[in-house]
Structure formats: C-alpha cells, structure tokens
Amino acid sequence: MNAVDAALMVERLRVEFPVLGGKPKVAVRDLDLSILPGEILGLVGESGAGKTTLARAILNLPPPPGRIVAGVIQFDGKDLLRLSERELQSIRVRNISMVVPNPRGELNPLVPVGEQLASIARVHLGKDKSSARAMALEMLRAVQIPDPERRMRAYPHELSGGMAQRVVIAIALMCSPRFIISDDATSGLDVTVQAQILELLSHLARKQGSAMLFITRDIGITAHFCDRVAVIYRGEIMEIAPRESFFLSPRHPYTMLLLAAFLHNPQLRQAWTHPDASLRVNPDAGIGCAYTYRCPRAREMCHTIRPPLAERTSGHFVRCHFPLERE
Amino acid sequence: MRLILYIGRRLLFIVPQLLGIVLVGFLLVKSIPGDPAVLMLGPTATPDAIASLHTKLGLDRSLPVQFWIYIRNLAHGDLGTSWQTTRPVLEDLVQRFPATLELVSLGLVLAVLIGVPLGLASAFNESSWLARIANFYGLGAGSLPDFWLALVLIFIFYTTLQWVPAPLGRIDLSLVPPPPVTGMLTVDSLLAGDWSAFRSAVGHLILPALTLGLINAGPILKMTQSSMEKMLQSDFSRYEVLCGMPHRLVVRHALRNALPSIVTIISVLYGFLIGGAVLVEIVFSWGGAGQYAVQGVLNSDLYPVLGFVLFSAIFSLFVYLVVDLIYFAIDPRISH
Amino acid sequence: MSVILEVEDLYKRFPVSGSRRYVQAINGVTFSVAAGETLGLVGESGSGKTTVGRCIVGLTELSAGRIRFKGEDISRPRARWPRHLLSKIQLVFQEPGESLDPRMQIGRSIEEPLLALKVAPSERRARAADAIERVGLGREMLELYPAELSAGQQQRVAIARAMITSPELVVLDEPTSALDPTARAEIIALLMKIQAELGTSYLFISHDLSTVRFISHRVAVMYLGMIVEQGGVDKVFAGPRHPYSAGLLSAVLLPHPHFSLESNIRLEGEIPSPINLPQGCFLASRCPLAIAHCRQEMPPPDNLGGGHIVHCWRHRDVAGMDRASDTFAEFQREAERILAEQKPTASICNLEGTPDG
C-alpha cells in the first residue's frame, strides 16, 4: 500500500521513554502501519505494549516523558511529525480525532459538557455562538444521550461513565474527521453499556466514512467491529490480517496465546506459553524478536535476527521466523 | 436559597468560634510572665499599692471569673482599657485597625500584581529567562526580612532619591486629616474631596505597601507557578491540546482550575498580615493595630492584646467565608 | 455436597448523606454455596454484588436477613466473629495494588492473616513460604515489595494471603478485572488448581461472563440488588430465562467473527438509580417484554428444576425467543480446533543460560 491510497500511514515510528541513568526504554519500535479510507483497524495488545503511546504519537502528543525519535506519519500528503504546533492544532479533532478512555478524568471539570462541545465547533468549524450550541445539541442527540437539553449544562462529574463516554465520542465525531483513534474507549464500562457504545461508535464512523484505529485489550471486540485486526507486542506489530483470516487462521504464537487465554483452556494455554514465562523478566535488548522470551517455539535465530513483517497470504502479515503454516 | 442558608450557618458559627479564640488568647496572655500592676506602678511601688491595684483591676479573682467578666463586658461593647494609652481599647482599635487594613490591603494587591503574572510566566515556559528570574525571586523574597527591605527602600527612595516623604506616619504632620468615615486616610480624603490630604496619604502609603508587596509576592508567585504547572500537565489540559484547542484557551481553563489554590494562599496571607505586618508598621511609624498589640504583649497590657485578637479573628473568619463563597462560584463540584 | 454458606433474604441499604433517602443496595437475596463449588455472582454497576461479598465476609453490616456458615450465624461484623471463623472465610479484592501495603514486603503481607490467629513468627514464615510457592512464585520473592511485581504477580500474592489460613470459603471480588487476558487466564487456572487440591469454595464476583462461565459451577445473576436468575452455569448461559440474563449474555463478544451471542432481546437505556426503586419488577422500564403486570408486582421465584430459579413473569416467552443451542460451546469447540491445529514444536535451543529477571 502506498501513501496515496492510505488514509493514514505510519512508517518506522520510534518512541522512547528516558530512563534515569540508563538506556531509554523503547515503547514503539520501528512501527509500520497503514489504514485505508473508511476502514476500521483493530489493534489488540496487553498493557505496556505501546498502544496508547502509538495512539498519541500519531497526533504528535506522546505521553510525557515520551519522545518521538524517528519516523514519518503520512496524512493528507503531509508528515504530521514535521508540522508546526499551529498546523497540528488545525488538524487535531478536525481531521484526526481521538476517543479517550476515562472520560470523566479527561473532560474539564469546571466547564459544562455542552460548552466543551460548542467550543470545538467554534474553534474548528468557525461557527458562531448559537450555531455552535445547536450543533453541540445535535451531537448529543446523535450519540443517544437521553434528555440532551438538560445534559448540555451538566458538568462531567454529574454524568455516569457511559454518558461521559458518549460525550467524548461526540467530541471526536463532531467535525466528521477522516480518521478516528479509539483508545480503549470502553474499558471500565458495564458490559451492556459497552455493547451500546461499540455499536454507536462503529455506526457513526461508518456513516461518516471515517477510517478508525480501534485500540483495545479485548480481542473479542475486534472480531465483530473491525475490518482488519493487528496484534501489538512491546511496541511492534506481530500480526495483521483481515478479520476472517486473522481469526480463522492465526499464525503468530502470541496471537495463539491471546486466543487460548480467552478460552481458559489450560492445555492449550500451556501449549502456547513458554514453560518459565511467568517467572521471566524480558530484557529490553532490542535485538532479535521481541517475543522470544515468551515464545514456546523460539529457536536460536529468534534471539539474534529480528523477523520482518512478512506477507504470508493475501493481506495477512506476520512477524515471525517460524509462523504457523496453514493451507 | 441554599446559598443563603449556607451563609447564615457560617455566620452563626462565627460566635462560638470567636469565643474559643478569645478564650485561648486570654489564657495565653495570662501566661505571659510579668505582673501588670507592678509594671503600671513602676519600681517604687509599695506592696499595698500593688495589692489595691490588683483588686481594682480584678487580678485577685480566679481565672474563670476574670474571663467571665471580660466576656460580660464584651457583650456591652466594652473591650477594656489600655493602661498604656489610658484610652478604651475599642477606641484605640477603631483608629488603628483601619490603618493596618489599608496598608495590608494595598500591600496584598501589589503582591498579587507582581506575583501572579510572574508565576504564570514561569509556568508556561520553564526554561525562559523570565522563569529563572521568577524562581530566584521566589527564593529571595522568602528569605529577606521585611523590615530590612523596608529600610533599604527608605534609603533608596527617600534618603537618596527624595521621591517619597519621610517615613513618619500616615500623613504629613502639617496637614489636617480628613473627617474619619472608614478610618482609612486614602478613602476618607477621597470622600471629603481633600486632594492634598489624599496625595500625602498615598505618598506615605507607597513605600510600606511596596515592602509588603515585594515580600509577599514570593509565596504567591510560587503557588501560582506550581498550581499552573500542575494544571497544564493534567489529563484534561492534555485532552484540550489533543482536541486542537488554541493555547490561549487551554491556559485560560488551566488558570480557572488553578484559581482555588491561589485564592487560598492570598486569603491566608491576608489574615496573617493583619498582625504580621508589625515590623513594617514599626519602621514606618504607622500606628497600626499590630504595633499596638505587640506593645500590649511587651507590657502585659491584657486588653489591647485581646482586643486585637478579637478584631483580627473576626476579620480572618470573614475573609475565609468570602473565599469559600468564591470557591462555590468557581467549582461546581462543591455542593453542600 | 454439603452446603457451607447460606444467605437468606439479605437486605442492605445505605443512607444517602444529606437526605433521608436510602441507596437500596441489596433487596432480598437468597442463595447458598456448597463445599468445593464455585458460585459465580454476576452483574453490572449498582447490582449490589460487591456489597453481598462484603456482607458475607463481615466487612459490611446487614440491614436484614441471615448469613450462616456451616450452620453458624455470621450475620455480624467481622470484628465480632469467633476466632475460629476468621480463618475460614477470606476475601480477595479487585485491585491487587490497593490491597497490598506498598510499604510492606510481600512476605509480611502474606503472613498478616496469621497475626490475628496468634501464630508464632517462625511458623508464620514457614507457612508464608509454602503459600507463595503454592501460587507459583518463588520463595525468594518474599522479600520483594509489591511495586517490584507485575499486576498478575501481585494478584497471586493476594491469593496466597487469602489462602494462608486454609479457608473453606473465599470471596473473590473481581479478582481478574484489572489484569491482562493472559494474566487473567493464569490466575483462573491457579484458582481452579487450588480448588481441586484443597476443596475450597469460591464466591466469584465478576462482570466478565466468559471467565465466570469457565470457573463457576453455578451462577447467580444480579440486578439492582436482586438475584433475577440462578442455576447451573451451563444451563443459565445456554438458555437464559430472564431478559436481563439474556441481555447480559448478548453483550459478550466472542473472538470469532462467525459466532455471536446476540439475542433478540435488547435492553434499552441505562441502569436506573438504586435510590428510587420502582414497585414492580426493577427491569420493567428497560425490558422489551414488560407488560402491565410487571410494573405492578415483583415476580416471585419460579423454580424450573435442578436449582434453576428465575424471577420473571414471562420467562417462558424468554425461552421461546432465542435459539436453544449453546453458541458458546460451539464457539469453544471451533476455537479449540483452530488453536490445536498447530501444536508448537519443542524448543531446540537451550534457554536455561539466559539471564533471569
């Protein structure tokens, strides 16, 4: 895929976190990723895999004290990492927006939510005060918040988790951006509320024709809401494939482990876990395959040579020297 | 409606609070070594004279009785008499308290005008030269003695440059002070339309207020800086940046969130300075309430001290009430 | 199987500060747990499941009702329990980081429950070493502080601490919700291993249905302080008879694009406040099957046989609305097939010499 086709293209992105008196910790390591216009790409990983770092790095806002040290992020013919702060301001939420987790902690506690929505419309869409308010009300309706007129004046702490999440989705979708990043948008919500939010988000994204990077720890979600699915481990993409191919014929040992974990099948889980895995601490060597220390299939080559993200069948890429073979 | 109830409840509580404060003040003053009767009569006093003075002053009664008498008189508006000035304490304080208030208020305004902008500037760009100056200043202001700074300023602006009048009181001795309405010379002279008195009062006020301002800008600056930094690093500030909100707006919102801390420190300083400005008052012969109270302590003159405690306590409690109302207005999360 | 825990008609309400109203957290809950079995308690926020756990362990006082442990009445705060009972019932919290004192070495944390039992220091240390090995960690880790462990390891420590008094009943309140999927699976496997070895009973409180399904023998579904349905876990999950159970299950997303637990029953809106509960069935305002009768009168328990009890006027209609087949089991089989297709080959390289963390 080249830059012309993709809605967003990440190339060789590297984000590091300084470590006191030592080598910096690499949170995102030479990562390549492209998302087509209108597609929903799911990104699955565990905590510390670099999901949020990647998400925020796309907007050139790595979580402090992280620093982007290399890479290119192609969007709309420009490299986002080389733009000025002013240019980035006009892109954020207008062309690329983000749905954040823990919305009640991220919304300004002293400003009513209606006002926060309206200010987006004023700043990015140039609306005057009354049309901005009308738009804000419309968005609250679109995200199915009950009693939207009253909720316009509510403060974030007065809303439930589910409603605050809807507000954050409204903010992210308000300007019909071409690209939406959803970072763990449903963690901490009740199951039934989560289901509603997922439906809402994917429905609105599709309606607007926006592409979406859907980041989650729950692999189950991606099977039903995403077109393609990717797995991230220690800052690297380990496997990426169209949904069917991903779930019906997974090829990376880590993917197998994630699926086995869901099944709670002890034999299968043991089969895909390295015998000493829970006692081992991975040294951050940066040489060879990042998954070596947990991999039950690891061989000598895995320690020294980093496997490339190679295509196995059409659209199905794996980063492994010895991926599973399927017919 | 809830607001009125709240204010009413607070005002109601002021009475028992004051009672407690006065009780503690009373016990503390009584514990100061020194016999007031001896001090009043001088070293040549005979034991009989001392004893009869004790009886006259009520010093031979037990402590609880003495306290009860004091409270009873208080209820009638009698704060006792100062044996130093031989005048009723109430009269003395009515004259002196506004003087301190005037000085401290202007000093605090100056402190805010200096401290807040510097604190903001250093919070925005931590490595700029302004931030470094601000850091140095914040450190320095906290370590300088206020009377020393007062003397330095007098030397520069009076002795050398002759820009301000002599540091002898609140107004030029040759001028007739305006009729007292609030007790504050600047306000009263404005009300009376007396321009020469006004100019003189301001001229005398400038240096002591500047002293207080320069010293107290330090903690205000520090608090503003740290509070703003914290807000700018908070999740919601980062989220606003993530939404492409312009810098001005992010800063304005952060400031609003930082306001409670800044308001708190200003209010604490305000209450403190009523007594804490005493050294500056002495250097400038201001005739303020702090001076009055200190002299009372040194002379075991009970009533001025207690009177001062009462006045400043009422003032502080009032300031804290206003501050809480400000919080109410700023932060919707606080609800009673 | 003998019953070790009986909860009878439990009620709990909390006063709302600054008003005379109450949060009705638990509204008449009755269930039992047998020796060596796991009862899963599922529900969303406001269901009261955490409060039920805390009442059983004696951390919260009941408003009404009875709790009995092996016949003995324990319906009172833990501070007033006889000593022999303290060791028998333990609790594991959700956030391991919060339940472990960050300033205490984990060995001391694990020993802590033994202090109340006045066990000698040398015996305490020995038992702590046994406990930590039983949860799959090494003895040398007793000296470490919680911050030096991963979340999964911290939770193992919390389990070691709960198990050190050899309890017969352990209440686990969302023990895996804060963990990653792989750590979650390991903890569940550990719990089941302990249950197999020691015959411990679990009250497993969680909102994660797929985990509950795996570890529980029976399940009770809670909504606004009531158990709306309870029974054998396979029966309830394969064929729920309460609209809420069906709604809850349909929200589970299986990691396979062809398998969906979606139900014809869809719940609207959000969970109402537990302060002003309606007169009739609590779900009526959100239930697509609600009729006038539902809003007027709370449905009584209906025993469907085999311990399967449901509180719904229209449970027969619920049964008719969805497929009778067990999608979950079908998915399980298919997923296992995909994963078992390729067994990993044995490691050729000897990894023993690599540095240990």
Please explain how this structure is put together:
The complex is a heterotrimer of chains A (327), B (336) and C (357). Chain A has 327 residues and is an alpha/beta fold. Chain A folds into two domains: 233 residues, P-loop containing nucleotide triphosphate hydrolases (Rossmann fold, 3-Layer(aba) Sandwich), CATH 3.40.50; 73 residues, no CATH class. Chain A is built from 13 helices and twelve strands. In chain A, the strands form two sheets. Chain A has an eight-stranded mixed β-sheet, sandwiched between helices. In chain A, strands 2-1-4-5 form a four-stranded antiparallel β-sheet, with helices on one face. In chain A, helix 4 packs across helix 5, helix 5 crosses helix 7 and helix 7 packs parallel to helix 8. The radius of gyration of chain A is 21 Å and the shape is globular. The model of chain A has no long low-confidence stretch (mean pLDDT 89). The model of chain B has no long low-confidence stretch (mean pLDDT 86). Chain B contains 14 helices and no strands. Chain B has 336 residues and is mainly alpha-helical. In chain C, the strands form two sheets. Chain C has an eight-stranded mixed β-sheet with strand order 6-7-8-3-9-10-12-11, with helices on both faces. In chain C, strands 2-1-4-5 form a four-stranded antiparallel β-sheet, covered by helices on one side. At the A-C interface, helix 8, helix 9, helix 10, helix 11 and helix 12 of A face helix 6, helix 7, helix 8, helix 10 and helix 13 of C.
Write the layout of secondary structure elements.
The complex is a heterotrimer of chains A (327), B (336) and C (357).
Chain A: E1 8-17, E2 25-35, E3 40-44, H1 51-58, E4 67-75, E5 78-79, H2 85-91, E6 96-99, H3 103-106, H4 113-125, H5 129-142, H6 148-152, H7 161-173, E7 179-183, H8 191-208, E8 211-216, H9 219-225, E9 228-233, E10 236-242, H10 243-248, H11 253-263, H12 266-271, H13 300-304, E11 309-313, E12 316-319
Parallel strand pairs in A: 3-8, 3-9, 6-7, 7-8
Antiparallel strand pairs in A: 1-2, 1-4, 4-5, 9-10, 10-12, 11-12
Helix pairs in contact in A: 4-5, 5-7, 7-8
Chain B: H1 2-30, H2 36-41, H3 47-57, H4 63-75, H5 89-124, H6 129-143, H7 146-160, H8 185-192, H9 195-232, H10 235-242, H11 247-276, H12 278-283, H13 289-298, H14 302-330
Helix pairs in contact in B: 1-14, 5-6, 5-9, 5-11, 5-14, 6-9, 7-9, 8-9, 9-11, 11-14, 13-14
Chain C: E1 3-15, E2 22-34, E3 38-42, H1 49-57, E4 64-69, E5 72-73, H2 83-86, E6 89-92, H3 96-99, H4 106-116, H5 121-134, H6 151-163, E7 169-173, H7 181-198, E8 201-206, H8 209-215, E9 218-223, E10 226-232, H9 233-238, H10 243-250, H11 292-296, E11 302-303, E12 309-310, H12 315-321, H13 327-340
Parallel strand pairs in C: 3-8, 3-9, 6-7, 7-8
Antiparallel strand pairs in C: 1-2, 1-4, 4-5, 9-10, 10-12, 11-12
